[in-house]
Amino acid sequence: MMNLVSQFVLALFATMGFAVIFRVPARHIPACVIVGALGWVTYLITDYNIDSPAIACFFGACMVGLCSAVSAHIFKEAMTIFIIPGILCLVPGANIFYTMEALLRSDIEKMAEVGIQTILMAGAIAMGLLAMGAVINVVRALLSKTISIKDKL
User: What count of other Cβ atoms lies within 10 Å of the Cβ of residue 134?
Assistant: First the structure.
């Protein structure tokens, strides 16, 4: 449990650094930081329970997408302000490095293994954001129809 808390705090600082680098407005930085940290903790919990980095990236990206939508609604801003710094903790940068290292060492088997895992993780991040965006659009459509039906009554 203590490791999870320390990972949460470290993810807060990492996301804050990315938010500053991408020049997120100061009033949005606290929300960006929470979005990124929650995405990372979701990744860690899922990876621990399922032991699949790709599935963990999917659920982490879903959490980032959901929290970004909520933050965008609260602050009346675009979701990308919260998604971009929030998702960067999930990007498999170390795997990309290990893939290139294996390529340079001519270890084709290791390169293929790590490279495929990296591609799966990157695809899972994209699919998680896409799936959450679709769910949010469906919920918005249902809510708007419900509100319009109430107005007609």
Answer: 11
* pLDDT reported for residue 2: 75
Q: ∠ CA 56-134-122 to the nearest 5 degrees?
A: 35
Quote the crossing angle between the two packed helices 80-87 and 53-75, to the nearest 10°: 150
CA distance 88 to 64: 10
pTM across the whole model: 0.90
Question: Can you say whether residue 52 is alpha, beta or left, with left for phi > 0 and alpha for psi between -120 and 50 degrees?
Answer: beta
* Nearest C-alpha neighbor of 116 from the set 130, 98, 129: 98
Question: DSSP alpha helices (H): ranges in the chain?
Answer: 2-21, 29-50, 53-75, 80-87, 93-104, 108-152
Q: What confidence tens digit (pLDDT) does each residue in 49-71 have?
A: 999 999 999 999 999 999 999 99
